[in-house]
Here is the input.
Amino acid sequence: MNDAPRAGVATARRTGRGDSPARSSSLYRRRALGLATILTALMAAVILSLAHGANPLGYDQVWSALWGRDGSQASIIVWTERWPRTLLGIAVGAALGVAGALIQALTRNPLAEPGILGVNAGAGFAVTLGAGVFGLAGISQYVWFAFLGAAITTVVVFVIGSAGGGTASPVTLVLAGVALGAVLNGFSTFLTLIDPDTFRSFRNWGLGSLARTTMEDTLLVAPFLLVGLIGALALAGPLNSIALGDDLAASLGTRVGRTRVLGIGVVTLLAGGATALTGGIAFLGLMVPHVVRWFVGPDQRWIIAYSALAAPVLVLVADVLGRVLVRPSEIEVGVVAAVIGAPVLIALVRRREASSL
Here is the structure.
């Protein structure tokens, strides 16, 4: 058997098409059960997010407010504070979860996440630079800096990873991204330390917060996130082939270079947009794709779809915990997510299967 048929068999097995009817039926039942579980968990997280905060509301008050904007205190809280914040959590969670799944597939690195290619650091540095030099203060102003910083950083990572005349490999991309991200984070910290008054308002943003973003800000960035999510689903098929290795993917007809460039562009949209809105939430893009992979297997189509639904659950639960634990104040969602993510990261590293996708 030559390479192409062998690769075709492997691809079929990865997507579940090469399994026996009984095994395929069991896999699809498991995926359907998992999908129903995630959707139920997402609905529960939305209700918790609407009900809990500095002014806790009864679930009956939330239900009444959702079906009638009667000007009551509960209605005002739900429609002007909790609902925009909940939608923001869903949008940012889906973006970062899918971005993590894409990066892990593109780099074939199971411990990768959006920050590993320096995308978040580039966006954060551009925003910090814009605030310090141009006096930017609102998301509508610095969102474009975030996208520009994320895009430039991605291009630089590719250039560094391709240095020497070769093709950028997953290993060189990861090394270039980690190194550049560390440098940019250092510059951002330096700028904030030399002029703390200017960057005082960015302190919470840098920790990953849903509190300062308005509905108008979310709607401004939402089209970019939507395009990124659609692009990620469109790339799921080629990514299944790339998971077999570049040579086998090319033998199957996949244009590896184009897929990798488009994938990085999609990651830039998703991670850059999410960072502009919240400042970035650590570990989210790492945890969620791994957890959903346990349920759905290695098929990237299912991993991306599940990540888009499961990551918002984690964001909303972390945000609710941050609001409840120190009421009437609150802990930024990025801090709570990091506390949840650290044990998960340790568990992933200790897993035997963590070394491969």
About this structure: The radius of gyration is 21 Å. The mean pLDDT is 82. The CA atoms of residues 162 and 193 lie 34 Å apart.
